[in-house]
Amino acid sequence: MTSSINFRLRKPDTYAEGTGAGVWQVEYNEADSPPLGLAWVYALPNGTRASMLYVFVDDGCRRQGIATRLIEACRERWPGLELATPATESGRALCARVDPERWGRANLTTSNRPR
User: Fold this and answer.
1) Number of neighbouring beta carbons within 10 Å of residue 71
2) For 3-84, CATH number?
């Protein structure tokens, strides 16, 4: 099945018009389906810094690598991409897998969790 990842600038920053700054929606699609995974990224002008705010995957499509593919595609576009603090156990496991240096098991205790 053919898959694609699409980047859409949903809320451009008006102070930095034309630089790509703002909130981006990143979609994972297969064939002609609606998005099976979504991520929201806030990027500063010209991609100088970016932070992934959220990543969601359709319940029926979890554990198939969709969130990982979204993160990888975002890192290609924004090499310094930072991941926001995970809100769920699944999110913590994903962060530990894709960025073990920052989010490995020892770094995910409640007392020293990155903010």
Assistant:
1) 22
2) 3.40.630.30
